[in-house]
Amino acid sequence: MAGLSLYFEDGHDDLDDFGFDDYGSDCDGIRITAFLDAGQDNLTPLGRLEKYAFSENVFNRQIVARGMLDVLREFSDNENDFISIMETVARMSEDGEPTVRAELMEQVPNIAMFLHENRPNFPEAFSRYLVPIVVRYLTDPNNQVRKTSQAALLVLLEQGLMSKADMEGKVCPVLLELTEPSSDDDYKIEAVAIMCKLVSMLTKDTVEHLLLLRFCELCGDVRLFQVRKVCAANFGELCSIAGQEATEKLLMPKFFDLCSDSLWGIRKACAECFMVVSNCTNPEVRRTKLSPLFINLISDQSRWVRQAAFQSLGRFISTFANPSITGLHFLTTSNSSNSRNSSIDGSPDSLIQPRSEQLQSTSDLTGPPSHPPEGNSSAQPKEDGTSSGQPTHSAPLSRQQMDDCTMFNSFSFWRSPLPDITQDLQLLQEEERDEWKEDVPSLDAQGPATSSQIQKVLDCLQPHLDDPDVQAQVKVLSAALKAAELESQREDADESVSESNSCTGSPTSDELSAMSELSLTDAQISDSPSSSPVLNVIPQQLLDQYLSMTDPTRAQTVDTEIAKHCAFSLPGVALTLGRQNWHCLKDTYETLATDVQWKVRRTLAFSIHELAVILGDQLTAADLVPIFNCFLKDLDEVRIGVLKHLYDFLKLLHADKRREYLYQLQEFMVTENSKNWRFRYELAEQLILIIELYSHNDVYDYLRQIALNLCSDKVSEVRWISYKLVSHVPFSLLSKIATTLHNELIMRFCHCTKWVGRQAFAFICQAIVEEDCMPMDQFAQHLLPSLLSLSSDPVPNVRVLVAKALQQSVLEKTYFKDPGSAYSDELEEALSELRMDKDRDVRFFATLDPNRNVMDTAALI
């Protein structure tokens, strides 16, 4: 005991009086407020609190600071006691020992939350007692105390406990003072970091009024690179809050300086937030200023900068998305007081909403360049490469535009004209070199070019493919040639149909429908590659850099996982280019699909259904289905990506193509590792949705057996979801087949020798009734008698589910509630027996109110 004098120099203190005898450095498991218990000093609890809060012993003061929340819980009911405790807290905040101040600050967020929930005058008390402590500790000389106060401040802001007046009047002035040019370096760096984190929790007006100009100054701090690095890392956050006008006027010049900073870490931070910054600018700035800047980052001398730039390339390209091409529009949302606007893939201030119909008709997309469609003059590029008709911001669609989209009729636009590419070919001829210019045949300027004319031009251009301009024109001409050939085939088909009709009479309605669908398909294919040049969507340099991400040399010089980043962003790039420019990405997608790294193929497998939505059914069937088939035979790590969205992909295919996969669904039952039960679980979940895509006979012939096999799985979770799958099958079958299935269920489950099978039958019956998978009269005729027979099963776990099915599901249906029902007597008799069952769980569920959901019985299986 002699060593105790080192800890307690106050000779009047008695360890037994205030309960510190068992305390050590780790006293979390001990009641902190033990020092308030009555002892030999005859002091009141608050008097004892005062004594130890200002004791000469540091350990005493630490314990009091750590237990301040418990003290408030015990004495906050009395207003005088509450004020006394809060004043003690304020006085303790001036303690000279840093550890005491740090302990007290750690409790401030908890104390604030407690006061918010229990005190009616919380804002006043919080602003008066706690906010000054937090603000003062931001300038504390001790590093630990400052870090603790910064963390506490962020928690208070995230929880919405600090008022706008306190933020603007107390917190922001301190941060502005600490970020002055004359401020201490350590304080300045910390203040910049906390200010950047604070921005996302403040309103736009507060940021613009108080912090925006100071942030711009800090971006140009030439003395401290740490300050510039923090600003670069948080630049996107500030742009998303400040909005487009402030970004372009004040922040954009600073962003250019940061992107050309001498330190690679700052340039790397700029590359990482490039997409967010781009989304806060208008299309013209994005194309003319940000694109060249991003190209510089991609070709940066630092490998780490290039790596970050390539990782952000796909996301940056996605900001060029034009609603007239993607079929999506940006819907702006208001900014709340303490939260940022919603975002998609990190893009602020906007939500991407799909339209109910295609925005433009195919005739709009394929119209001659000399006559651009009204309201969309993007077909006429300016000399500087920008689109003259491009909107300055992604605004919501007007009501008239939305009405036009809703009224779109695919049949009205099935006959789209062949695009007139004469002007493009003439422009190409004017730019050709003198030595081979005269070898290119001239085209008739009076009408659309024929396939033979286009082929002659292509033949002449083949020797000059080294010229990038020629390469771009060859792509357009090749697509136009394909479109012309398809148009010729379509006209031949029309002529043959006309001749057939003249001989056999007018066509039937089914034939007309088939003709219109075929013509629409041809029109979509014809306008896909040639409706709008890629240069009108995104700068060609960005596309070239993106396509080069599959180059093996990139993996050596930039990033070994660059192909994975390319695959991850490919749906966004495809959406931006539009399906009419899919030919630009097709080879890249096929290269990624055969990449040796399974992570790359896995990324594509998880997003192939999204890409199918973007491309449409025709391109999906031609280009994605073969790759989808390869993924089905890949590693389990790749197959799971296909399996998780199997329903989403299959529903986009035509019925005949979709039916081919019925034979392959059984293959998902086989995995490389038999312990991978989650694979089979996912298959059962997908089959529940897939059932609606197939005919009754197909469900019975193919899906029924898979469902029954899953019901016999070794893993309980797989069996549980499979029972739900089986309950969906009868609803999809014809009467004769359904009767056969009912008998199979009874024989397989109800008459099973194992109690788990009989219990499964009770669950399947309950699921059928709850989800109305079959008419109740058929259920009563085929399945109810077998269910009632299980009410006397010798196993209590079976009777539990029978009682639950009868009480909570069957009797809730009007068909069985009717007193005149033929089965009411049998149901009441069975429930009466279950209510008097010797097992209390059975009695509980037999008498339970159907509207009361007490427990999940999954644990009983």
From TrEMBL:
<keyword id="KW-0677">Repeat</keyword>
<dbReference type="InterPro" id="IPR016024">
    <property type="entry name" value="ARM-type_fold"/>
</dbReference>
<dbReference type="InterPro" id="IPR011989">
    <property type="entry name" value="ARM-like"/>
</dbReference>
<feature type="repeat" description="HEAT">
    <location>
        <begin position="783"/>
        <end position="806"/>
    </location>
</feature>
<feature type="repeat" description="HEAT">
    <location>
        <begin position="290"/>
        <end position="328"/>
    </location>
</feature>
<feature type="domain" description="Phosphatase 2A Regulatory Subunit A helical">
    <location>
        <begin position="89"/>
        <end position="318"/>
    </location>
</feature>
<dbReference type="Pfam" id="PF02985">
    <property type="entry name" value="HEAT"/>
</dbReference>
<dbReference type="InterPro" id="IPR000357">
    <property type="entry name" value="HEAT"/>
</dbReference>
<dbReference type="GO" id="GO:0005737">
    <property type="term" value="C:cytoplasm"/>
</dbReference>
<feature type="compositionally biased region" description="Polar residues">
    <location>
        <begin position="498"/>
        <end position="514"/>
    </location>
</feature>
<dbReference type="InterPro" id="IPR051023">
    <property type="entry name" value="PP2A_Regulatory_Subunit_A"/>
</dbReference>
<feature type="compositionally biased region" description="Polar residues">
    <location>
        <begin position="353"/>
        <end position="365"/>
    </location>
</feature>
<dbReference type="Pfam" id="PF22956">
    <property type="entry name" value="VPS15-like_hel"/>
</dbReference>
<feature type="region of interest" description="Disordered">
    <location>
        <begin position="487"/>
        <end position="514"/>
    </location>
</feature>
<dbReference type="InterPro" id="IPR021133">
    <property type="entry name" value="HEAT_type_2"/>
</dbReference>
<feature type="region of interest" description="Disordered">
    <location>
        <begin position="335"/>
        <end position="400"/>
    </location>
</feature>
<dbReference type="GO" id="GO:0019888">
    <property type="term" value="F:protein phosphatase regulator activity"/>
</dbReference>
<dbReference type="InterPro" id="IPR055231">
    <property type="entry name" value="2AA_helical"/>
</dbReference>
<feature type="compositionally biased region" description="Polar residues">
    <location>
        <begin position="375"/>
        <end position="400"/>
    </location>
</feature>
<protein>
    <recommendedName>
        <fullName>Phosphatase 2A Regulatory Subunit A helical domain-containing protein</fullName>
    </recommendedName>
</protein>
